[in-house]
Amino acid sequence: MKIILNIKELRKSNNVTLETFYFDTGIHLARIEQGKTNITISTLSKICNYFKISLSDFFKEIE
Description:
- It is a single chain.
- By secondary structure, the chain is mainly alpha-helical.
- It contains five helices and no strands.
- It has one domain (2-55): 434 Repressor (Amino-terminal Domain), CATH 1.10.260.
- The chain starts with a helix and ends with a helix.
- This is Helix-turn-helix domain-containing protein.
């Protein structure tokens, strides 16, 4: 659950809407944020790349 909350916070802090994120990446972030689908490390990597953050920095914020 912490991963989902961190993704949502990252998106909001960058002022990116779910619609904009989907159009830019093709990833249905709403489904992930709502817990309707599991996130893979590949998808998480794409999300991090979009927000210009490394996976290690992403996980540091969860701790």
